[in-house]
Amino acid sequence: MNSTLKNLKAEGRCFLDEPLANHTTWGVGGKAKIFVIPKTLEQLIEIVAFCDEQNIKFKTIGFGSNLLFLDSGFDGIVISTKNLDHENSVRDNSIVVGAGESLTRLSRLALNNGLTGLEWACGIPGTVGGAITQNAGAFGMDISKVLSKVLVYENRQLLTIKATDCEFSYRFSRFLNSKSLILDACFTLKQDSKINIKEKMQLFSSRRLQTQPFERSAGSVFKMTKEGAPAGYLIEEAGLKGKQIGGAKISEKHANFIVNNGGASAVDIINLINLIREEVFKKFNVWLETEIEIVED
Hints:
It contains 7 helices and 18 strands. It is of the alpha+beta class.
């Protein structure tokens, strides 16, 4: 354990054999060998550099949404960015925030400054870094449409990468499955009245309450198909709404959500994912691709 990890352990920010179920929105997952919550970007970079030098596996997470850790846990270092100190700034039509900033707080920062383009992000339980990595979106919008540039730690150096060079596509970016570490992001928005912005946010929030389950989940499990059919529609038409394996259940409110109905394991969720794929393929000859990330040990 290097000096940064030792210091964070002394501060109560570094834990051994930490249950990942405590740090994911699904509430499942085994133990991380080391779980660390750095406070500064310098600490974050030092930890990642240490992992690179020692060839230690690491995984950065925000609020633990949109991912699934296995029951076997993670034999490496899991780094949480959710408590990183970062001074957000707003200048003209641009907002700069840290990778650990929540999407909800980002959308409210835009609202408070009369900037439109991020209303759809209000209520999404994720961080900016994770949203950029997976090009998160909702209601026909996604992060790539408002992102200007990102600051990353890559190949042991700091780089500023334009949004046009992030290789964005549907639920994909160049950062997915890479060791690049997003540190902060700049968004370019448009001016609008706070009243209009707030109305849009309330509309999107209302739609979420009406269509998405309250139980613990990781968001949409499957991507929209290449043919443009919503995965939830196909799952429902396959007669799978309410289907349960162990503690994992296909939501009766929205079929593209798998909820933790109490005591679910990662195996329960994976088995349910496999069942959905097989049944939808039998009925529609369509193989669903997961939107969630399954973190292999």
